[in-house]
Every structure is written in C-alpha cells, then in structure tokens.
Amino acid sequence: MADKQAHLNGAYYGSNIPPKTDYHRPGRRSGCGGGGCCCCLLKLILKIVVTIVVVLGLAALIVWLIFRPINEIKFHANDVSLTQFNLNNNQNLEYRLALNITIRNPNKKIGVYYDRIEARAYYEDQRLESKTITPFYQGYKNTTVLYVMFEGQKALVGEGIQDFNQAKISGSYSIDVKLYLRIRFKLGKVKSPRFRPRIECELKVPVNSSTVAAGTTKCHADF
C-alpha cells in the first residue's frame, strides 16, 4: 500500500505535453512599415516639413489678399531714344539707349515702397547692361517717372550678328527692358512683406531713331 500511495502522489494529471512558452523575437521587418525607428523618424520629419510649407503658403496667400492693390500698378515705357546701335570694327555692338518708365499707382489707400529697382536691357536674349535705380516711396494715386540710360558695347554671340543685320534691313530693333523689383505695400501704418515682381517692356525701336521716338509701350507686370 505504501508503494502505491507513493506512486499516486508522484503522478502527473493533465496533458503529457507541457505548454509552450511564447518568446517574442522581433523580425527584420517590424514597425513603421518595416523600417524601424529610422523610418518613423523620417516620416515624422516629412510630416513636419509638409505642415510648415502649407502653413507658410496659406500665410503668404492671406497677406497678399490683404495687401494686394485694388487697382493694378501700371508700368509704361515712353520717350525712347536709341542714338547709337551699330557694330564696330571688332563686331561688337555699340549702343546708347535712353527711355522713361512711368509708374502709376491708382490706389487711394495703398502706398508702395520700392526698396530695390534693377533695370536690365536685352537684345536677342543677350543682356546688354544693368542699372540700379535709387529706391523711393510712391504715395496714393501717384505717378512716378524713372529715367534710365544704357550705354556701352556688347559682343554678340551665336547668330547675334546675323540677327542684327536682318533687323537692320527690316527697319526696327527688338529691345527688351526688364525691371526686377523688391517692393512692399503700405496700408495705413501696416507694411506688407516684400514681393519680387518682374516688369517686362518689349520695345520696337526704329533703326533711324536718333531722336526721341513718339509713342508709349505698355509693360507687362508679373507679380
């Protein structure tokens, strides 16, 4: 009896297979699409950058809608004088171009600070010269006239000489004058951030324009 009792006390009741212990082994592809912490960090940075860009874009749009001129500022080129425009013995283009640029601010409550004005002259997409004009403030319903003169010489490259000769035969030269601006609008005592519009005046100047040419050319403003 003692042996049977001892055998019973040492018996195992239940399944003969002990339960498995589950150990978690992280695989190579786990978390954040399998890229781990680096992938999560990159996605977080990307979300932050996108959010900042969207917020700045909306802020810029709101500022522009507040400060935009009710009536567009108008630019015109007039009194154009081309007293020299010929090829010298070295086949360099000698030029002397003068003109007035009229700026009209028709708004009643918005003034304009012209913090930087750079005027550039182009012939056949080649820059002839750049001029920096003195900054100024333009008040309400005001017209300002800027006098600009370009003088010097420029080596024509590519088919520049051939194009020059063809233009001379046709009777007029195509010269572009562009203004690169940094401006701020003023509404009451509040000033807007800086904008950088570009103004382009496409001039058709007669070959024999030794005197001031009559007529006015409307310039295109790209804000």
TrEMBL record:
<dbReference type="GO" id="GO:0005886">
    <property type="term" value="C:plasma membrane"/>
</dbReference>
<feature type="domain" description="Late embryogenesis abundant protein LEA-2 subgroup">
    <location>
        <begin position="101"/>
        <end position="188"/>
    </location>
</feature>
<dbReference type="InterPro" id="IPR004864">
    <property type="entry name" value="LEA_2"/>
</dbReference>
<dbReference type="Pfam" id="PF03168">
    <property type="entry name" value="LEA_2"/>
</dbReference>
<dbReference type="GO" id="GO:0009506">
    <property type="term" value="C:plasmodesma"/>
</dbReference>
<keyword id="KW-0812">Transmembrane</keyword>
<feature type="transmembrane region" description="Helical">
    <location>
        <begin position="44"/>
        <end position="67"/>
    </location>
</feature>
<dbReference type="InterPro" id="IPR044839">
    <property type="entry name" value="NDR1-like"/>
</dbReference>
<dbReference type="GO" id="GO:0098542">
    <property type="term" value="P:defense response to other organism"/>
</dbReference>
<keyword id="KW-0472">Membrane</keyword>
<protein>
    <recommendedName>
        <fullName>Late embryogenesis abundant protein LEA-2 subgroup domain-containing protein</fullName>
    </recommendedName>
</protein>
<keyword id="KW-1133">Transmembrane helix</keyword>
